[in-house]
Amino acid sequence: MDATRLSLRERFILKDIERRLRRDPRLRHRMRAGRGVRSFWLPPTVTLSGAASLLLLVVGIRTSDPGVIRAFAGLWPLTLIQGFRLLRRWTEPQHVPPPPLR
């Protein structure tokens, strides 16, 4: 660790900056949701994995093939996890009002 110490004034300024950053809802939202291009692929991924899971379920029930049942058992939890991620994204507030100017 660096042996440099901050003066009392510098520590006060740093605490004030940290306090403002913690209060900034736009920054908090961007830090939480800022996944960029990866988040674009979530709805199509959930749709395709859901359709594949449904197909494997129907084929597994009709044929009782252990391979198909194992494939369904492997894909279904991933589909649920992605679906819950998508649901959580849809229920989060979309628009965060800007902080008031001082």
Write structural notes for this entry:
With 102 residues, the protein is mainly α. It has four helices and no strands. It has helices spanning 8-23, 25-33, 42-63, 66-91. Helix 3 (42-63) packs antiparallel against helix 4. It is elongated and about 75 Å long. It starts with 7 loop residues before the first helix and ends in an 11-residue tail after the last helix. The model has no long low-confidence stretch (mean pLDDT 83).
Key descriptive features of the protein:
single chain, mainly alpha, 102 residues
What is the count of DSSP helices, taking H or I runs of 4+ residues?
Answer: 4
As residue ranges, the low-confidence spans are none
Q: On the 0-100 scale, what is the average pLDDT?
A: 83
Helix/strand class: mainly alpha
Oligomer: single chain
Number of strands: 0
Please compute the radius of gyration using only Cα atoms: 24 Å
Give the fraction of residues assigned to helices.
over 70%
Query: N- to C-terminal separation?
Result: 36 Å
Q: What would you call the shape?
A: elongated
Largest sheet geometry: none
Order of helices and strands: HHHH
Strand content: under 5%
